[in-house]
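Example record used in the benchmark description.
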Amino acid sequence: MQFSNSVRGPNMLRADHPLSNEQIASVAPSIFAAEAHESRSERYLYIPTVEVLDALREEGFEPFMASQTRVRNAGKIEHTKHMLRLRHSSSIMDKEADEIILLNSHDGSSSYQMMAGVFRFVCQNGLVIGDRSFDQKIRHSGNDDIKSDVIEGAYEVLDQFKAMSEQKECMKQIKLCVDEQEAFATAALSYRYDPQEGPAPVTARQLLSPRRVEDYENDLWTTFNRIQENSIKGGLRGRNKSGRRATTRPVSGIDQDVKLNRALWTLAQELRGHLTTA
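Model output (structure tokens):
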């Protein structure tokens, strides 16, 4: 399945073809940092992310998305936290592609982390799936063979997709009534917008609104995807805390994206567990 679409922002690029180093560098130069940030001590073990990327490419993993965090300190632009989403040739299906999410930084703000993700072709949207127990973390200390550890970790995540695929299939078999869908969306709103700071700018029903025909199904997997896409991509019309008309903003920060994705996945799994044992 081929798509000509690509999504680009000042600090993010996703395409339907493997990204070149030049394309990655245009949005995430920190991936190519030549050394660790000056704030790091001698005990900090530095391995350029690009070397890990090259090693993963040799193993059949290709990057389809790259981004880095926005920083106010110009001195950290070349070292700040960054993200790559990679696919292996064995993990691309007709409608979805399993992705390994690699996080790193060269300023001490992040260890090497690898998480599981899914990319839905129909909506050009990337999800983070699995709980923290599936994560692979490697510290910047105590080991001078980080590249081998990262490659091993990538295959560990790849192996875990089978278990996650079973969870997804289970979610697709669970049909939700209207009340159950709204309860899920209401809980999601409380993660996206802190109730202590005032009412959310949109309603639970708006989070449930499908953006395309394929998302009209009422199973748990499709409902989760609708809520996730509307929460992450924004663009919903509502009212701000002052009661004025406003449009919800997309979640663009790496940390916020991962945190919200994780929270929504946890909600979905709690609902799945409740409904399969009820």
